[in-house]
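User: I need a structural model of MmcQ/YjbR family DNA-binding protein from Enterovirga aerilata for a docking pre-check later this week. Nothing fancy, just the predicted structure tokens so I can convert them on my end. Input:
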Amino acid sequence: MSTEADLRRIALSLAGTSEAPHFDRTAFRVARIYATVPADGLTANVRLSPEEQEFRCLLHPGALAPVPNAWGRQGWTTVTLAALGADELASILEAAWRGAQGRARRRS
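Assistant: Understood. Predicted structure tokens for MmcQ/YjbR family DNA-binding protein:
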């Protein structure tokens, strides 16, 4: 069973990660945001590739689900923290972190 504190500890252990507010959530980013946590700390949204999202959701059907909108089709995935152990959460966060290390998006 993982908690928001576990997510924070794992995310901040990944090289280059910073934590900052993002609207009504807390965001973790390297070049781009790869995870957000709402104020209640019960879930998190992580950005995976669509292929990684499909695989992880099949592997952990009660713990992960695509965000139910266009963001979900882009790989954003809701994680129920209490449904995963710390090792599984670390693996998911590492996958999201790897995908976020590319160049930051340019703002117009």
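Before docking, keep this in mind: The mean pLDDT is 95.
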